[in-house]
Amino acid sequence: MTRLQTVARTVFFISDRTGITSETLGHSLLTQFENIEFNLVRLPYLDTPEKARKLVRLIEDAHAHEGQRPIVFSTLLDDEIRVIVSRSQALMLDFFDTFIGPLEQELGVESTHKVGRSHGVGDFAIYNARIEAVNYALAHDDGVSTQHYGAADIILLGVSRSGKTPTCLYLALQFGVRAANYPLTEEDLDRDALPSVLIPYKKKLFGLLIDARRLQQIREQRRPNSRYASPQQCRDEVRRIQQMFRSERMPFIDTTNRSIEEIATTVMAETGIQRQHF
Amino acid sequence: MTRLQTVARTVFFISDRTGITSETLGHSLLTQFENIEFNLVRLPYLDTPEKARKLVRLIEDAHAHEGQRPIVFSTLLDDEIRVIVSRSQALMLDFFDTFIGPLEQELGVESTHKVGRSHGVGDFAIYNARIEAVNYALAHDDGVSTQHYGAADIILLGVSRSGKTPTCLYLALQFGVRAANYPLTEEDLDRDALPSVLIPYKKKLFGLLIDARRLQQIREQRRPNSRYASPQQCRDEVRRIQQMFRSERMPFIDTTNRSIEEIATTVMAETGIQRQHF
Question: Which residues bind ADP per the record (chains A, B) (predicted)?
């Protein structure tokens, strides 16, 4: 494939701490410029003036090499470090610098300017709750155990490979939500009724649907040329599970074109489940 | 405990899509105002003018009830929706609106203004790689299988309850990194040498250390009054694993006061492992 060769523009994501906020921010913005090639550089834990001066040299090198100034997305709380970086030639878009002023004015107080509160350990009890949610998801993955369904915030149902496991883990890690999942097997679908173990928890059930062709594609990668991955089998399971979701009047969503983040946040929005921690 | 009762100020996190960006942003900023109480409301998938007008009514109600105007953190790409919300009385801090202009000017092109690229499914191959990383982490959790260590990006070592499992899952879900973990047992520590199964992968090993008192606290919650949770046992394991990390010249970090995000991003920064997807 031939294409017009242009020099990619270097973009730095920098932060005093994890860099998660500046990457999230910066990436959201860059996706709005589809036809431009970027060279992404992540520099978390930029927490000393020495590191800041080293970054300035990287910025100068990239500028000289590419003939266009780099872009810096940053969340820097330390004034000294921010001043060093802002004296470089880069276009610097600093998230704190931009929004903290209007917020201080609105709230009538000064900010604490403490580094790294947003992804830190925070309260020990909240931290534990999150780890417990992960342990819960692992213990109740794929119907392994149905013993503590009473403690679940939600129980996801779907055919094998419809996205249940990653969604449960994401709900636990990101939001501290206790999510179990139950794989509906062929026998369950043959009976055309909810497995009896699920009946007491009907209000917690949420279905994940998936397009049969996409399902087939995913299963084929996993077990090539198997009955499990055959078009007929996938179509059949999808058709029957959709029937069950409808006849049981369960809420469900189609996961086919949704990312894990989208599935998880949609499930939360539709059920009203709240995140348990930030 | 008595404290001055003030009315909490309502803060809305709104978005066309998942709301992850506006929550991350807004939360980072709010943590800088420790003594102010906020009433947090999340409204993802705010994607119709009707929903926007409903939000405006919520803003007006909160304003009237609390006597101070709400704060809105938003990432709205749809102009019509943004205009409706911006006409409310809230202090609106819109992330796209603020930064997209300077970026368009710098890059010399208009942004595509497409909704929800940042947490969407994106490229199918990349999506699969991420799911495969989650499956890998699950299959190689807690030394369950050491069969495919050759495919690991990293192998975490640590005593039981030092944070290995959540860190591996976070690395997989958030960054598409293949992370295995191996629990060093008492017998491993008694031998004071790396288990032979790990020796071929020495360059991939990374140690997680934890403070003995914190370890004891965590284990006590899990198995109260057990030998496993006794102060003596925890001190002993921690001391010996630290010895092993040192004698094997392995990189390691202390997880005691670090969140999962901090452990994961520090491991990546120290080893130079790159994220496999955004």
Answer: 158-165
From chain A, the residues in CB contact with B166 under 8 A are 130-131, 134, 173
pLDDT band at A2 (very low <50, low <70, confident <90, very high): very low
Cα atoms found within 13 Å of the Cα of residue B160, Cβ hemisphere only: 15
ipTM score of complex:
0.80
Pair B275, B173: CB distance under 8 Å: no
Q: Structurally, what CATH architecture does the domain formed by B9-107 represent?
A: 3-Layer(aba) Sandwich (3.40)
Nearest Cα residue in chain A from B171? A173
B164 is in an annotated binding site: yes
Residue B79 phi/psi, 5-degree rounding, is: -60, -40
**What residues of chain B, 174 to 213, have a C-beta less than 8 Å from chain A?**
none
Pairwise CB contact (< 8 Å): A173 & B260 = yes
Q: Which fold has domain B124-271?
A: Rossmann fold (3.40.50)
d(CA A113, CA A202): 47
Beta bridge partners of B9: B38
Confidence grade of residue A208 (pLDDT, cut at 50, 70, 90): very high
Sequence ranges of the domains in chain B: 9-107, 124-271
Give the pLDDT band of residue A40 (cuts 50, 70, 90): very high
